[in-house]
Amino acid sequence: MPGLEPWLYLGPALILLVTVLLVPLIVGISYSFRKFSAFKSEYVGLGQYQAMFSDALLGQALYNTLWWTVGSLFFQFFLGLGLALLLDRPFFGRKVVQAVVFLPWAVPSFLSGLTWAWLFNPIVGPLPHWLHALGLQAEPTSILSDPATAMWGPIIANVWFGVPFFAITLLAALKSIPSELHEAAAIDGASPWQRFSKVTLPFLAPTIAITVMLRTIWIATFADLIFVMTAGGPAGATNTVATYIYVSAFKSLDKGYASAVAVLLLLLLILYAVVLIGIRRSLARNS
Amino acid sequence: MASVTLNKVQKDYGSLNVLQAVDLEIADGEFVVLVGPSGCGKSTLLRMIAGLEEVSAGEIRIGERVVNDVAPKDRDIAMVFQSYALYPHMNVASNMGFSLTLRKAEKNAIDTRVNGAASRLGLDKLLARLPRQLSGGQRQRVAMGRAIVRDPKVFLFDEPLSNLDAKLRVHMRTEIKALHQQLKTTSVYVTHDQVEAMTMADRIVVMHDGVVQQVGAPLDLYDRPANAFVAGFIGSPGMNFLPATIRRTDADVAAILADGQRLPMLASLPVADGDEVSIGLRPEHMRVAADGDISVQVEVVEPLGLSTQFYAKLAGQQVCVFAMGRVSVKPGDMVRLSASAADLHVFDPKSGQRVG
Q1: Rounded distance between C-alpha atoms, residue B224 and residue B226, angstroms
Q2: ipTM above 0.90, yes or no
Q3: What's the N-to-C CA distance of chain B in angstroms?
Q4: Interface contact A208, partner B, CB < 8 A
Q5: CB distance from A5 to chain B under 8 Å?
Q6: CA end-to-end span of chain A, whole Å?
Q7: Cα dihedral sign for B189, B190, B193, B198?
Q8: In this protein, which residues make up the domain named ABC transporter (chain B) (predicted)?
Q9: Helices (H), chain B
Q10: Is A133 exposed, middle or buried (0-12, 13-18, 19+ CB in 10 A)?
Q11: A287 confidence band (pLDDT: 50, 70, 90)
Q12: Most buried residue among A113, A131, A169, B16 by CB atoms closer than 10 A?
């Protein structure tokens, strides 16, 4: 049976993929069509999805997620790029600095969340007093307790945590640029800024596209830091879709609704990825 | 176009001296080849002319201008790299026109220059391609095109043919030489291949261990190498070196080899009886002759059709003999060889310097 033989070879990999990836996904999606209560669940069709339209909390969570993701990503990326460019130049003690720079990435997110929460705490942490001394705060209070500023807390912690990722990947990409290219550009008459924009950036573009996409998805679904630092509060000011899903599923015990919100987030992220890949394709074609 | 003058140019990396006081005058329009084994400092010297390496001491002039502290882009030079260094995200036309674009030349002027260079190099149909869509030879041509579009004062070539296969290398060699004959732009060309140096250069600069060994026209280096290094480096197959003792009598002068065989020498050589010397004898200067002065035992024969070269034992040492056409010798044969006294090179065995 020649028709069957290839499938036998593919079999183990397919079974693994289906059981590990596809089955949980389908089960998760199927939950979104059900309503769970203490000891039973019932099929409610699109009821959970209809409920989302009238959920003001979800609307705010979506807005918060956008704010949290864009804010974190923007600073992570530009600080990471800057750091990578600095680390690409030879200087005394570069190896040590590199190791130190990459350290935050190795710290468990729960630990960094706790540490940052304490740093923002006016009783044990120095940051509120510094902000006060700089005149940025009328009196030293935790920015985490004010709904207007609370989101900055997890964003700052997330920037600290995520900069190494961009620094590592962009540094690796920078190292792969042959030095002759920069020399050729220097002889061709490129200024340092032109060398960066016409040689370095185009070289980094594929890496930037893929890392920004990955990072966006990770940040949008990343709940640890927020949950540890503010648990979505105060007054839902830091409630993102990811924390909302967690709270819905394990605090409100509304697994069906949590699944429906998760499917929404999944669709939004797929849409984002498709758009980003499209942009990258058209850029690659034009250059 | 311009001349290039190096005046006591030196390069140190910390306490490590890699180039010692290089003096060199390159005339306007001249094609000069820097040649030597890897690590001899030839690429460093070229990169210093390009402005990619700092000059530790001495002075580099392009034309009348001292360029020690002038940025590469302001030296009016163009360089062809061994790896070609084409911008991977730009097509051939943009690669070639990049320097003009940066100098804010007019679009029409850029197109004219790029098209001109492209047709000269046979790249007309490839202008819209990306470097990764080109073969090695085509990339090499684009790198050349990028250099000639600029119409610079000086071309610098850093082993531009090393990444090509042997056949293409020979072809491009001829093309570069033809291009230079058309453009007559001053060129400095670095290679480790002495055949490239011999075939392309107006003058060759032989370097070794950061020291210029000899500067001269290809055949001058071949005919009168200044020392044993140049003698061994220039010419293929390489020169044979044999230790010998001078025997000078009123009647004649001869070199006595380690096994007692005699090679007659020119009486005009400034050598005295009993001097220890190193005799240099090119493979093509030994002839198989029944009445030859020396006898050797053939070990390996390499027939090449056009010519034949064989390796033989002489005075306990292997020597190479090169003859045009076909020579009927077999491994194991005892053969007599003759060499004209005028073809003998004599070197001081300690310093390696030429004697006479």
Answers
A1: 6
A2: no
A3: 39
A4: no
A5: no
A6: 50
A7: positive
A8: 4-234
A9: 42-50, 92-102, 107-121, 136-149, 166-183, 194-200, 218-223, 228-233
A10: exposed
A11: low
A12: A113
Choose among B51, B82, B99: nearest Cβ to A188: B99
Q: Which residues of A52-89 are buried (b: 16+ CB within 10 A; e: fewer)?
A: beeeeebebbbebbeebbebbbebbbebbbebbbebee
Write the CB contacts of A75 (distance below 8 Å, at least 6 apart in sequence). Answer: A155, A159, A163
Nearest 5°: phi and psi at B316?
75, 10
Over the stretch B162-211, which tens digit does the pLDDT of each residue have? 888 888 889 889 989 998 999 899 999 999 999 999 999 999 999 999 99
Question: Distance, in angstroms, between A97 CA and closest chain B CA?
Answer: 24
CB-based contact A170:A81 (threshold 8 Å)? yes
Sheet of B276-281: strands edge to edge?
Answer: B262-265, B253-257, B240-248, B276-281, B345-347
Residues 6+ apart with CB under 8 A from A155: A68, A71, A72, A75
Q: Among A182, A287, A185, which residue's Cα sits nearest to residue B99?
A: A185
Q: Are strands B345-347 and B186-191 parallel, antiparallel or unpaired?
A: unpaired
- Is A177 at the interface with chain B, CB within 8 A? no
Contacts of residue A181 in chain B, CB cutoff 8 Å? 85, 87
Cis peptide before A234 (omega within 30 of 0): yes
Convert the pLDDT of each residue in A109-153 to its tens digit.
Answer: 889 989 998 898 888 888 888 888 888 877 778 778 888 888 888
Please enumerate in sequence order all residues whose Cβ is within 8 A of that of A10, keeping only pairs 6 or more positions apart, or say none: none
Residue B126 · residue B148 · CB < 8 Å? no
pTM, full prediction? 0.79
CB B85 to CB A183 under 8 A?
A: yes
Q: How far A205 CA sits from the closest chain B CA (Å)?
A: 10
B-chain residues within 8 Å CB-CB of A190? 73, 102
Residues of A in contact with B52 (CB under 8 A): 183, 186-187
